[in-house]
Amino acid sequence: MKLLGRTALVTGGGSGIGAGIAERLASDGAPVLVADINLEGAERIAAGIRAAGGQAQAFRTDVTQEADAAAAVAEAESRFGRLRIAVCNAGITDRSPVLEMPFAAFERVVRTNLFGCFLTAQAAARAMAQGDEAQRGGRIVTISSVSGQFGGTGRAAYGASKGGIEMLTKVLAVELAPLGILVNGVAPGPTQIARTAHGPRQRDAFLNRMAVKRYGTPADIAAAVAFLCGDDCGFIAGHMLNADGGFAAAGVLYD
Ligand code: NAD
């Protein structure tokens, strides 16, 4: 119960990695607002957390909308008390090659992943910065991807959005640490979620680069997030923690 009573907001908490993060923070004692554009998914995850004895509430939010970000923070605080943790996890992808990608597709991905991350982090930070030194503070965790660190085919919008999140994480950390708000990020490698549909070629290419010869699970990523939200992490700011089975460690593989 390392996060007992620390109100948390998890965007994109209605499925996949975000659901794993919401469940993990709740099992560590945090009351969690499970915020997602897919309210049905968020409700299912929140109900599962409550059935397991945790505290959770679903909330519909679109991370691309500034008013939604403020509303999610206000809802979390009115239900559970002062916001202490925000995880900017909601994200989408588009694998179109550059020559075929309509601008609208590029814009949609960057708007959701990068702008959405900014809006959630900003709304959370505004709440966490309220009050005197004893009252203010919190943790913000962004979710990037190894695609924000490496080039690759079909990654123009997604990779650019995630690379942007990595720099945004550093800037947020520098500006907010003096207010007691620690900002860090987690960069997952290939992680198995319900809708993962990688063909054998892609799967082999990923596994070949991963020293730990398996895909990650939402629980693997959630463990890294929980560490960054807890008291064991008091002197880390602006760090991108790769939870990727060694993907980023591998350069050219000779055999
Ligand atoms: P997912 O599709 O299961 O989860 C994404 C969630 O975000 C969904 O519940 C979706 O409804 C929600 N969402 C989408 N647009 C939204 C919006 N505008 N407002 C609010 N919610 C919105 O996929 P996932 O793999 O769990 O992705 C979670 C995060 O992890 C993303 O940021 C993704 O880029 C990142 N990531 C995933 C992997 C992987 O292999 N699965 C690897 C690296 C990074």
From TrEMBL:
Enzyme Commission identifier(s): 1.1.1.47
Pfam families registered for this protein in UniProt? adh_short_C2 (PF13561)
What are this entry's molecular-function GO terms?
glucose 1-dehydrogenase [NAD(P)+] activity
The record's Gene3D superfamilies line, in alphabetical order, gives: NAD(P)-binding Rossmann-like Domain
> What are the UniProt keywords, alphabetically?
Oxidoreductase
Protein family (similarity comment): Belongs to the short-chain dehydrogenases/reductases (SDR) family.
Q: NCBIfam families, alphabetically?
A: PRK07231.1
Q: What is the protein's name according to its record?
A: Glucose 1-dehydrogenase
Q: What organism does the record attribute this protein to? A: Plastoroseomonas hellenica
